[in-house]
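Continuing the series of single-chain predictions for the mutant panel. This is the parent chain; the variants come on the following pages.
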Amino acid sequence: CLRQTRPVGQADWTFLNGAAVLKTALAAPDLMDHLLQLEARAGRDRTRDAGNRPLDLDILLYDNLSLSTSGLTIPHPRMSFRRFVLEPAAEIASDWQHPLLKADIGQLLSHLNRQPNVVSVIASPDCIRNVLEQKQRGPSVRWQHLSCPADLDEATITRDTQGDHWIVLLTSQQDAYPAIAPVTKLFITCQPGGVVDRWHGPLWDVSKEPQESDTDPAAILVDQVMTAIASMQPVNGASDRDALSSG
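Parent structure:
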């Protein structure tokens, strides 16, 4: 069924989100070209603001393919932590495995449901310092520099992430992984090749995201963290009938 959800990012509309499994003779790039044509027929102009759009079609997975080009990345780089993607996808393909994370869609969704509201960020010391100097957004989000992973108090973390409260753990130490993994809902890595080979939960490798050269990297990271948190929030569950009638 379709789900009516609040927008993530700059958009005024609510969205209807769903998932489908297709059989096709088209190669992945050709399939994406076809989806873009469908978007254009619906009135979407991808050269304009991406916020308000009549149709947004993406390829999440394509068999076990791993592909990264200037125009297409498979698996979709943000599918592993977007609840509005995982919930409908799990209804129809819960056992479909993410080829990089070695976890299936159902496991990724279960991970979001059971883990504390913690985003762990692995970045350089300079980036962490600059992030902490930014004016942080969101009164329910606490940003914490984890200089010594051994000092992590799991009981306190669990207590302080009840309801809508979140903690963002910032560390520059790759060896912090064993300490922070048990309490982490999402890893964000700013360093290529970070925890991908050991982590089997939602991951956002922002080092692969296109960046504007004249933009503050710390400000970008803060925005990415807040976007990720919004993406993991509970979805407003609605059937397709309810969602369509409410529009």
